[in-house]
Amino acid sequence: MARGSPSTTTQPLSQSSKSKKEQSKLPTWNLAKAALLVSIGGGFNFGYQLLITNPAQAAFIEFLNDSYAKTHGVYESRETLVFIWGVIVSTFFWGATVGALLIQTVADRLGRRNGIIGSFLVQIIAVALEILSSFTNSYILYSLARILLGAAIGVSIGIGPMFIIECSPLACRGMISMATGILLQVGLVVGSITAMPEIWGTVDSWWLIYGLELLLTISVTVLLLFLPESPSYLLTQDKEQAAEESILFYHGVSERETEPLIESLKKGTEGEKPLGLFEIFTDKKWLCGFLVGIAIMNGTMMCGVAAVNAFAFDILLSVGLKATHASLGNLAICIMAVIGVLASGQLVERMGRRPLLLLTFGGLGLVNVLISGFMYMFQLNKEQWIGWCVVLSICVFNLSFAIGPGPLCFFVPGELVSQKAVAATYTWLNIVMNGSRTLLLIIYFPIQNALGGPLCYFILFFPPCVVTFAICYFYLPETKGLTPEQARHAMHRLRGFCGKGLKDETDGKEMSSY
To answer: Which residue windows does the record flag with biased composition (Low complexity) (predicted)?
Structure first.
């Protein structure tokens, strides 16, 4: 993008029109359809990949054992194979981190819709290679394909929320922006089911797990070709007529009602150059909103959900449950996440973003105390009922997580920064998301071996909940129904760093424009 050109980053559409349709908090069918398609290839596939390697781990390690012996002519010990498999699993997050670095470039150069389609095409290639690795018995091909798949999903899960926000009326922005979080939780459930040994989680059938993902991704890619680009991106490309048609498609308003929306979008993009990945750290106007958004994402990843997704099955086995009971418990935990995220779609507009995050982060901290406490009780008294208390506690954890941080961490940060800062913000959000998860997976077992499971769980996951709760309490304004500029001024009225350190001399003039 040339210097001085309009920003091509995300800006929610203004509520200039007062029509009943525009004021409705319910999205139009076209907008809901677009959010669903984008989120299947983004949030769903991401959640699906998080879970499938857990229930089917025994099958994958057997595949690795045979493939390693075929490639290197030697059979390794069980401990070595588990270590190698752990590295292979983590390669998905390496790829996702690389993909996060490409979000801004892909979104600005290809556009939102075309960038998403491109990432879906790469996903199709990567998943096809995963299937091929099963028939060629090549763990090396599987590992390379997993890196490529992580990069592609990293791009799509970053651009997807930007595209959805750009296409959404302000009144239903919160509800429709839940799509990524909802489909991510659905992906967790579907992955936990398809990867069970009783379904496809066996040495001969695990390729079918990827076959389902391949079929879904091909389908949504084809359907996405028939959807228009986001209106704000079209305006930055001087395609005003196409932008009007896009608003008509996604908002369901009349041609007359598109005029004030177009004018509002023009005002939001004129003269703004998108911030680079490191320029955002020197932009005092939007730095605080950016940092609060990053803190919310980091707290979301470090509150314990990564361990629940990756190790819930092993945790349940460690508290005395049989393998079958642990599988059923793991499934129940995932189902609670879906129930929670569906409830969140209603609560986010009724309660608001800030109260919901405060309530759920506080609840997650308390539940983490219960989980670590029950784990410690089982070490002292090997009673089976204690194991079921752990199942119940993790179910409550997943319910709370899915109501609050799970879906909100994908769109609340975008409400705290302006159009020129959103692409850089979402890039860093995805870097933090994958980096935090990777770091946690690396340090979890060494700390567990050194301190024991209960103390490890408490030390790793209770403090992040407390810290994030405090950040949301002191620095996060309520963003419901606000533009990023209005959210910035609301943030400046809070106490502390955001309220005093970043308030500039022009605030009074800017506020007079409202």
So the answer is: 1-17
Amino acid 52 reads: I
Q: Check residues 468 and 381 and name the one with the higher pLDDT.
A: 468
Could you give the CA distance from residue 431 to residue 426 in angstroms, rounded to a whole number? 9
Range of the domain at 228: 7-272
Dump the DSSP string for 72-122. HS-PPPHHHHHHHHHHHHHHHHHHHHHHHHHHHHHHHHH-HHHHHHHHHHH
In a domain, 193, yes or no: yes
Give yes or no: residues 452 and 312 share one domain. Answer: yes
Are 134 and 453 contacting, i.e. CB atoms less than 8 angstroms apart?
no
Identify the bridge partners of residue 169 per DSSP, sorted by sequence position: 13
Q: Are residues 378 and 432 in the same domain?
A: yes
Query: Is the separation of the CB atoms in 85 and 429 below 8 Å?
Result: no
Global pTM value = 0.77
pLDDT at 508: 46
402: CB partners within 8 A, 6+ apart = 181, 185, 336, 337, 338, 339, 340, 341, 344
- C-beta separation of 485 from 418 below 8 A: yes
- Helix, strand, or coil (residue 283): coil
The residues with which 245 forms a beta bridge, in sequence order, are none
The token duo for 345 is 């779609």
One domain, residues 199 and 118 = yes
Please choose, from the candidates 220, 233, 221, the residue with its C-alpha nearest in 3D space to the C-alpha of residue 268.
Answer: 233
